[in-house]
Design goal:
The complex is a heterotrimer of chains A (663), B (102) and C (458). With 663 residues, chain A is an all-alpha fold. Chain A folds into 2 domains: 415 residues, no CATH class; 76 residues. Chain A is built from 29 helices and 3 strands. Chain A has a 3-stranded mixed β-sheet with strand order 1-2-3. In chain A, strand 2 and strand 3 form a beta hairpin. The N terminus of chain A is likely disordered. Chain B is mainly α and 102 residues long. In chain C, helix 13 packs antiparallel against helix 14. The model of chain C has no long low-confidence stretch (mean pLDDT 90). Classes of the chains: A mainly alpha (663), B mainly alpha (102), C mainly alpha (458). Chains A and C meet through strand 2, helix 7, helix 8 and helix 28 of A and helix 12, helix 16, helix 17, helix 18 and helix 20 of C.
Chain lengths: 663, 102, 458
């Protein structure tokens, strides 16, 4: 087991530029939004684009090997107190994430110029997007757990802003809140892990904690891993903390592409990959994480079969694919899990952006039952989505093929045959529902009411509100952003969606393996019962079965002719367990939300004003009672006062009479 | 020298005194109350004189003069207060003036 | 001498304001200038002291003022928050409000700068008076003023007795800031009880907190900003500067009780905040919850936790003041404090919504802002001492805080614009300037609280 020492110390201005440029962009865009108007888009793109350039320029620093096993670049920034020292760390793992964040992020920024055109809060959208890029970079570039947690929280905030971007839409507002609160649950898990780590090692820095990983003790180590995993599960939408992800589709589609597909939701994968030295020492943690990852992959895929909203299909597919990634890094197949993150970033972004093209053209229609026949009307979107689907299915040669098989085979190599089986089955289901989406959306004849010419939405911010269709009929004189803003990024993404997997071709000698040399704990697999080639064949067979099933149900000539009644039939007969999403939302509501509200009402509306304050009021009443009692002596009657005088005198006399006698 | 034992004087004085106390406590007419108070003063006077005679000095006489003076002053002021307070009252009843009631 | 100037300047100006008839604008200018001068003086007099001999019998007492490492930051916070509050004042009869704010500032400066227990005790009662007068004048319910005053004064009474007993036993009360004083003996537990009762009422801590919700809702925004930001810290400062310093044995002996009370405050306040519809009540109960965390930190006797507690004290002061001022802006524009009726302000008033957002995020402990720094350092320190269950229980209010703060923020700023709430003007320059120092400080402290923390660690 090699020990993971941290990067080569030094000063890296390019790294600082990568990190801070998006923040600068965000501040400028937020402060001067109204003045910037449509210039906000190019400004936001420039900030992220420059960050991407600097990331590429930092390649050398990020992959350098230094003395004592140091890997990558490290720069100290600020120190709160002993044990809480913050700096930036750029090693291959962080570099990979940074490249995706800034690179794919840049493409999505450009896409957004077209998609969000006409929105009243155009500049603010880019402010939030830039802020998100900054926050995500904080997360991956941090060299200690508290810095990571800060990035974690800020990313959750950015997600909240972007999901609830259209603030007048109640469903978006509710979805944003749900996402944020679940995210805080994850934050709290990571906080607890930090407490345990600090108590055991006196530091929160990655280097210190990993160096002392052996001294934790089994329970402490398991506790740390489980607590960290709570955070990872919340952020990466793993069961049971996944319920926010489908609702997050309320946000604009570029948001779904960037945050809820390519980057933010992969933060959990990053965390586990980063903490590989911890996980590698705890077999229980590995089993737990791997199982939940596999379970999520399966459940996500099953639920994907039941969705009719194109973005929700993609949301569940994201959840499922991240399940693969988590499963991969959970059980120790770090390179495989990270590889799947890499390819997934491209093809999922591609899929979301492509769906955005459709949604934009159809004036906010997201229900696939109202689509159909778009192959002829939106050919470019068809090509884009098709490549994405082929990649996600794992068709040989496409990017997803290389990474998915690594994860599945890794499960077997690391001794988890059940997870291996789950991975294979899920691959089949994935193929089925993705092709279902493709066929229903693009084949046959068009079933909707809108003329899908390229006019698109006039006022994206009103999507879903009563005014959504204002100004849509006919040209209204407002110059529409040219379509190339949206089409070019999608076109660019086709290339990695198809080809990027070849970087992983060649096993130990691939460019991929070279890139990650020294990053992860080395592990030598034993003999696996099924060979890798056989696995590939099995997966391929299952995928073909899935595609075939989808074709038979949705794409044959007979099915296409009868599309409308068949789809309606399917909607009606969908089992309740699926439409209610396996009742996770209901369970969380029943177990947590309602009791909390009940406790709140009991404490705040009943206990406090009546019982506790009642006690205080009783004290005051007691004082008043004493006063009333004392007052009863003041009758105002002279004779009564005279009586008291007499009594007093008698007492006085009696005292002297008897006290005198006793003496 | 006393012809009668001192205890008789004490008894008489006490009786007169407590009759006075009873009068203050039980009668409602302020004038009667004032008279009862005079009774109490005089009972005390009696006792002073008796003891003065017993010990054979004049201290008791001097105190008796003091008491008479104070009693007279107190009666005068008391009567003045009674006149003012009950000037417009319907009944001369001390229970009616409960203005100091808390 | 400069310390004395610092303490007396606001009071003198207040007196002048009371006597001279100025119009609202001039009064506000005078108040702002005084507050600014106070901030400058607070920075300058960091190491200065002033002492004047007062009593020799029954024990030695002096008018001894000067800041300690802990109190310096609270004094600075007080000066800044008062400045912001005066700038944001917008009530009828501004002149009297500003005068009362300045008197409050003076009395609280005397409290936190006091190096003598007897002066501390007197300032404790004195600082109730401006708030009481303000409540008499501006409160919606007539009994609020009396409830506030009598409850806190009862605490002040036990404080006074404890101080007198302390002086009688130890011989002098000129002890704050002196690390070598330890009190033991038969009376010491009672002295501790007297101090503790006062501090528990002031903070407040469950179950002595019921004066707080109604006081916090009835007091006008500028005054309540200062009260919730600073006056609530008086009790916590007392625990640190008096309890931990002079009576540590008794604090340790009774610590379990206090930890239980702190945890109950934490959870109770958070749950209760979830169910309120009055904006200021939500913040009031959230305060109960947040300050419970600081009590927990103090009674964990961990250096790290106490350092975190100082950060959190400052952070809570900043975001509490900011929240109350901004909610004051909202109430002043919309005429209502009810979450049921509010909504959609963010559409036309983005700057107001933005300011509220930052304040609410700091309050819920968003990583990157000062509240988070306090929370994580405190809980790390508490965990280090081996208190597992308190830490686990303390994590629950963090999640609840996200829920109720978002409910507050979204209820005001998001959602469709209600038909019966007219759209009013966005944040003006003056209003923004009033909350800007607070928000900027929250961000700055969230990134680098080094200066605050290192002053406390050994």
């Amino acid at each position: 087991m090699i020990h993971h020492t941290m990067g080569v110390d030094g000063s890296y201005p390019f790294l600082l530029a990568v990190w801070l440029l998006p923040l600068l962009g965000a501040i400028l865009l937020w402060a001067f939004g109204p003045q910037l108007g449509r210039l906000g888009g190019p400004l936001g793109c420039a900030a992220v684009g420059l960050a991407f350039v600097f990331t590429v320029l930092s390649w050398g620093a990020g992959t350098q090997h230094g003395a004592g096993g140091a890997l990558g670049a490290h720069q100290l920034l600020v120190s709160w107190l002993p044990g809480f020292d913050f700096g930036l760390l750029l090693d291959p793992l962080a570099l990979l994430w940074a490249l995706i964040i800034t690179g794919v992020g840049f493409l999505i920024h450009v896409y957004s110029i077209g998609y969000m055109d006409g929105d009243r809060a155009f500049a603010r959208f880019f402010a939030y997007l830039n802020f998100f890029v900054f926050a995500m970079l904080t997360l991956v570039l941090s060299d200690n757990f508290v810095g990571l947690l800060i990035g974690w929280g800020l990313v959750g905030l950015a997600s909240y802003f972007l999901i609830g971007f259209w603030i007048e839409k109640p469903s978006a507002v509710a979805a944003a809140r749900k996402a944020f609160v679940l995210n805080v649950v994850g934050d709290v898990g990571i906080m607890f892990a930090i407490f345990v780590m600090f108590a055991a090692t006196g530091s929160t820095a990655f280097g210190d904690v990993f160096a002392h990983a052996g001294s934790f003790g089994t329970t402490a180590l398991l506790t740390v891993c489980v607590a960290l995993f709570v955070g990872a599960a919340a952020k990466s939408a793993q069961i049971p903390l996944h319920t926010w992800l489908p609702d997050a589709m309320e946000g604009p589609t570029p948001v779904s592409a960037l945050i809820h597909a390519a980057t933010m939701v992969t933060a959990g994968v990053y965390l586990i990959a980063r903490c590989a030295p911890l996980w590698s020492q705890s077999a229980d943690a590995q089993l737990l994480v791997g199982t939940i990852g596999g379970l999520t992959a399966l459940v996500g895929a099953i639920l994907g079969v039941a969705q009719w909203d194109i973005k929700r299909i993609l949301a569940y597919s994201t959840m499922s694919q991240i399940g693969y990634m988590i499963m991969g890094v959970g059980i120790g197949a770090y390179e495989g899990g990270v590889a799947h993150f890499f390819t997934h970033a491209f093809f999922k972004a591609q899929l979301f952006l492509g769906s955005g093209l459709i949604i934009h053209a159809l004036a906010n229609e997201q229900d696939v039952r109202k689509m159909g026949g778009l192959r002829k009307k939106l050919p470019f979107a068809f090509v884009a989505m098709a490549t994405g689907v082929l990649a996600i299915c794992g068709i040989p040669g496409f990017s997803g093929f290389f990474s998915k098989d690594q994860v599945i085979y890794g499960a077997l190599e690391h001794g988890h045959p059940w997870l291996y089986a789950v991975g294979i089955v899920t691959a089949g289901i994935t193929a089925y529902y993705m092709c279902r989406m493709l066929f229903v959306t693009f084949l046959g004849s068009y079933r909707g009411d809108v003329d899908p010419s390229d006019l698109g939405m006039r006022h994206p911010e009103l999507a879903g509100t009563a005014h959504a269709d204002d100004g849509h009929d006919g040209h209204d004189g407002h110059a529409h952003a040219p379509a190339w803003y949206m089409n070019v990024p999608v076109g660019i993404l086709i290339v990695p969606t198809v080809l990027i997997g070849w970087l992983m071709f060649g096993g130990e000698n691939s460019p991929w393996a070279h890139f990650f040399a020294g990053q992860f704990p080395v592990w030598h697999p034993g003999a696996a019962p099924i060979s890798e080639t056989l696995t590939t064949v099995i997966v391929l067979v299952v995928v073909v079965i899935g595609i075939g099933l989808a074709y038979w149900r949705y794409a044959t000539a007979a099915a296409l002719a009868d599309a409308i009644p068949r789809l309606r039939e399917e909607s009606i007969r969908m089992p309740a367990v699926l439409t209610n999403l396996f009742y996770f939302d209901a369970a969380i509501d029943l177990l947590f939300v309602r009791p909390a509200q009940l406790l709140g009402t009991v404490f705040g509306r009943f206990l406090d004003p009546h019982v506790i304050d009642g006690g205080v009021r009783d004290v005051a009443a007691g004082a008043r009672w004493l006063g009333v009692l004392t007052r009863s002596f003041q009758t105002g009657l002279v004779r009564a006062y005279a009586l008291f005088v007499v009594f007093g005198a008698l007492l006085f006399v009696a005292y002297y009479a008897f006290a005198g006698s006793i003496r | 020298m006393l012809q009668v034992a001192i205890t008789n004087y004490i008894a008489l004085s006490a009786t007169i005194f407590f009759i006075g106390v009873a009068g203050v406590l039980l009668r409602r007419n302020p004038l009667i109350m004032l008279m009862s108070i005079e009774l109490m003063w005089n009972a005390a006077n009696l006792l002073f004189l008796a003891f003065s005679r017993m010990w054979g000095n004049n201290a008791g006489h001097i105190f008796a003069f003091l008491v008479i003076t104070v009693a007279a002053a107190e009666a005068a002021i008391g009567l003045a207060i009674v006149v003012i307070v009950f000037r417009n009252a319907k009944n001369v009843d001390v229970d009616e003036v409960a203005g100091l009631r808390g | 001498m400069s310390v004395l100037t610092l303490i007396l300047l606001p009071a003198v100006v207040a007196l002048a304001l009371a006597l001279v008839k100025l119009d609202d604008r001039a009064a506000k200018v005078a108040g702002v200038l005084t507050a600014a001068a106070t901030v400058a003086l607070a920075l300058v007099t960091r190491d200065a002291q002033f002492s004047f001999h007062w009593l020799a019998r029954p024990f030695v007492a002096n008018f001894h003022f000067g800041s300690t490492p802990v109190s310096f930051w609270i004094v600075l916070l007080l000066a800044v928050v008062t400045f912001c509050a005066i700038l944001a004042t917008n009530v009828r009869d501004t002149r009297s409000m500003i005068a009362m704010l300045l008197v409050l500032e003076s009395t609280m400066l005397a409290l936190f700068l006091a190096r003598d227990l007897l002066v501390f005790a007197l300032a404790w009662d004195a600082m109730l008076i401006p708030v009481f007068l303000c409540l008499v004048k501006y409160a919606e319910h007539p009994e609020t003023a009396w409830r506030y005053f009598l409850y806190n004064f009862a605490g002040g009474l036990t404080l006074l007795f404890a101080t007198a007993a302390f002086g009688a036993i130890y011989g002098t009360t000129d002890v704050i800031g002196n690390q070598s004083v330890h009190l033991i003996g038969a009376w010491a537990p009672w002295i501790f009880a007297g101090f503790a009762f006062a501090f528990l009422v002031k903070t407040p801590v469950f179950p002595l907190h019921t004066w707080m919700p109604i006081t916090y809702t009835d007091t006008p925004p500028p005054m309540i900003a200062v009260v919730s930001a600073i006056q609530s810290k008086a009790g916590l400062y007392g625990f640190i500067a008096i309890g931990l310093a002079f009576l540590p044995d008794y604090m340790r002996e009774y610590a379990p009780w206090f930890v239980v009370l702190a945890l109950i405050s934490l959870l109770y306040g958070a749950f209760a905040a979830l169910a309120q519809n009055d904006l200021k009540r939500i913040v009031a109960y959230s305060s109960l919850s947040h300050l419970g965390l600081i009590v927990l930190a103090i009674f964990s006797f961990s250096h790290v936790a106490v350092a975190g507690a100082l950060v959190y004290i400052v952070a809570h002061g900043l975001f509490s003041a900011a929240l109350f001022l901004i909610l004051g802006y909202v109430e002043e524009r919309e005429g209502t404090r009810s979450l049921v009726r509010l909504g959609g302000i963010g559409v036309a008033n983005p700057r107001l919504a933005g300011a509220l957002c930052i304040a609410a995020l700091a309050a819920l402990g968003l990583p990157g802002l000062a509240g988070f720094v306090g929370e994580i350092v405190i809980l790390t320190g508490v965990y280090q001492t081996g208190m597992l269950w308190p830490v686990v229980l303390a994590l629950i209010p963090i999640v609840l805080a996200a829920a109720y703060m978002l409910r507050l923020f979204q209820g005001i700023a998001n959602g469709p614009v209600p038909d019966d709430l007219p759209v009013r003007r966005d944040l003006t320059w003056i209003e923004g300037l009033a909350v800007a120092p607070l928000l900027i400080a929250l961000v700055a402290l969230g990134v680098d609280p080094h200066a605050l923390v290192m002053g406390l660690l050994p």
